[in-house]
Write a structure and sequence with these properties.
Length: 131
């Protein structure tokens, strides 16, 4: 029963986190993240705090002209005895120059004892979307 509740709680947290990300609601996003989160996407340099993460993401989206960024969870894989959950996701991105991307990705979430996301590692291959 406890493991089932843990799985459902993690799934809801992840979906709520992605919903907040899709509208760039940083108050809501921050509520899901440990203040000193280790956040890394693909081969990029990891970020080590919510404050720095917000600064980097806001700047990156503005510079690249991203107008839409959504992640839909297709499946969860739980480590119920540990602090991890893997989400298989579909990533959708659009830019103001007309470029778009839709494809698979994977995100590994590490939760702390309070249920906050302490580490986030995402893996996608958006091809030339960012160029």
């Amino acid at each position: 029963m406890y493991q089932e509740q843990t799985a459902k709680l993690r799934e809801q947290r992840i979906q709520d986190y992605y919903d907040a990300c899709s509208v760039q609601d940083w108050d809501r996003i921050s509520a899901f993240l440990h203040p000193e989160i280790v956040f890394q996407v693909a081969g990029n340099e990891p970020t080590h705090s919510v404050e720095i993460l917000q600064e980097r993401v806001v700047k990156s989206l503005a510079v690249t002209g991203v107008t839409e960024m959504t992640m839909t969870v297709d499946q969860y894989i739980h480590d119920l005895d540990g602090e991890q959950c893997v989400a298989e996701i579909t990533v959708r991105l659009k830019r103001d120059n007309g470029k778009s991307y839709e494809g698979p990705g994977c995100a590994v979430f590490h939760f702390d004892d309070a249920g906050l996301i302490a580490k986030y590692h995402a893996y996608t291959d958006e091809g030339d979307f960012w160029s």
